[in-house]
Predict the 3D structure of the following.
Amino acid sequence: MKKTTLLLSLIAVSAASLVWAHGSATGIVKERMDGMVAMSKATKAITPMMRGNVEYNAEAIRDYARTIEEHAGEAMTKLFPEGSGGMPSEAKDDVWTDWEQFEVLAMQLENLGKGLAQAAENGLAESVSEEGASTNMMGTSGMMGTGGMMGQTMNGMIDIEMLAQMPADAVFAKVGQACSACHTKFRAESN
Ligand code: HEC
């Protein structure tokens, strides 16, 4: 009985410190964290399907894409008003000193969500383990090859029509890259 209580409180403490930043946030900061967490959970949930470990379901992929779209673009940037940095936020000052790039990355994510919704019916790349890996890395330049990063225009915006032609898992990989790209630059203690 005692042991259980101790164990439970230990678990409670470590979980509390993990979610401290999130837990102590309020208002708009909490709102944007919630949006990020929703995307993160949805991404984890859909990963087995994208890897071909569970049966493919285009509707589930579209649901996922909608979740991303809903939390990206302007829906995301409007939750980052000037002066909303500082504890407990993990947003770096660069968000506001480099607002244009921040916006572009948020827009890219929105377009990826839109593109993925359309790519859902394409299914997974045929050989996910081998071809898939190089496809994702090369941006499928071999497949549609016009040089440069496929699905991305000169000004860095993402071409939804091109994404719509790609295997769903290739677009999904780009979603993950978009999260990381922004976190690397704009989030302190990024994963
Ligand atoms: C345009 C930039 C940008 C994009 C794109 C982006 N994030 Fe974030 N993310 C941030 C910033 C900035 C923070 C820190 C927010 C804060 O603490 O105020 C953050 C925080 C988070 C957090 C921590 C939330 C918390 O509870 O503290 C998670 C989880 C997360 N993002 C997941 C994702 C996922 C998954 C994606 C892609 C599907 C994504 N993010 C895309 C900028 C971005």
